[in-house]
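Data availability excerpt. The first of two example chains:
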Amino acid sequence: MQKEKLSREEFLQMFREDVIRLSRYIPWFEKKSGNDVSKNYQDGDKMKHTLSFPVYDSILLAFLNDASTTVFMEQNYHYFYSRNQIKNYEDELRLIETADIMHMEVLQCILSRYVFGGMTKAYLWKDGVDHRIFLSVLKKARQIVEFWDQPLVIEDEILPEEVEDEEETE
């Protein structure tokens, strides 16, 4: 419980850089919510007698890679879920909405479930986009940091137009 001994400025600084780094994905998540971020790999007749496997959007994989190295990752997120009796994504969204600076572990544990859990149950990555979990966590984290500190400047946002240009060239 080292976090309880930090000053407000130290606590915010601990999250600030990671919030800036992950906030660049917000426009992409806003565009992608409700759209498919995975496809099943098919290579004609070669895949006829084998199991199909999902291929995920490269931007989603980049986000997951970035998120996995932030202060938002909490390996003991299972305890948070059982302690708060979280059963579905609606419970998660409700907790995200009510989170504040004193409850950043809510954002940490929910994001951790989808990032870490998706490494063994990949459908969680798709669910995180479909149910707007990733988007909600990022927006709430940004809102909290901006409320208690100062507005964040995100210079290298991943804009939806850039994604469309990449898809057209492939």
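And the second chain:
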Amino acid sequence: MVSQAKGADGRGSSYEEALSRLYSLQKYGIKFGLSKTSNLLRAFKDPHLGQRYIHIAGTNGKGSVGAMLEAILLKSGLTVGLYTSPHLVSFTERFRINKVCIERDQAAALMNEIDAAVDKREPPTFFEMATAMALIYFARNNVDIGIIEAGMGGRLDATNVITPMVSVITNIGLEHRQFLGNTITDIAREKGGIIKTGIDVVTAVNQTPVKRLIQALCDERGAPCWRIGRDARYQRLPSGHLGYYGLRDSYPKLALGLKGRFQYRNAALCLLALEILKRKGIAASEDDIRLGLADPLWPGRLEIVSARPMIVLDGAHNIAAMRSLADSIKRDFDFKDLVLVVGIMADKEISPILREVLPLASKTIFTRPAYYRASEPQLLLQAAEKLGSTGEVRVPLSAAIERARNLAGERDLILITGSLFTVGEAKSCLDPTRYPREHG
């Protein structure tokens, strides 16, 4: 059944129609600045003001840290909103309250309502519109705290209209250089733009120049700075558990629900943020922490979706993420041969990303998701050949997955990676009933 909803102008519009209008805003590209988001929210009487938020920026791990915080705070009895991007299968995934995605008819009504309030002389971008939706949705549903993931950068990111209880910077790597700057410190300065006067910052950055820059920004703005490796430590125990030793809290043996060695640092950062929140009146018990860390909802990251052969999905979309993924595959999975299915966005650093994972593969299939930003698979193959590797091209993605299954034996591992768009479409190919494809 097609859901119908009415905007402020009384116009009826289905979810599909409203989403199509929203996707049409992509023609305005990526534009940094806070004015259009602020103007949209002003039309709704600034619902984001006076709300409690956690703001998360960084290169990798933002969603994982957000999902862990969501799970723990939910166990503590709070109503928790989580805003992330991009989505895997459905646009509604971007807006969650207590792990439940917004309903399609609610999303349509909100899209229509905001669309009717848009100043046509100042059209918002796709992300500005989505961010306004999240902040309005969370305020109207009286969430106790909203966890807001920055889209790109931080300083001029649409999400930076909020005033959080704590700002989280996961890590900094080279990404989006055409927008954020060419050096690691340029990028760190943009992401450090979420640091606000007097607001605590927790971070897991580890490069010396980045640590110095983040500390300097915090000092300049009178923002207390807390860092993994200095103010809190962690270890991956032989049992696979996490040991955390923080400002005051210590947990010698915690189980993690998210796979991957990189998740231990993410979990430690989550726990350090929780220690700061505790000082501000939001406390989670040890049981809340144990139960929450063991049960976050964050698909598409080292997600095992099938066995014999094992099929693993991971949205690694930049050099650091692919390096971490490759390390986890080598160390934590038992398999005979690796069959790699890879699709990468054209605006990414394709050769360096491929360099991290190609040596693991016995067979490689280059493909692309049905998304306008995706690189042509033939270009991926050419990049691989320059690196001394080879492979084959299969399009569409469904054909690539079918080919991988034909090539893989029962003890082999099929890894589908390169982009969250690749992973999202793969979920639809593998289970179309549960994850039907959505067209905007």
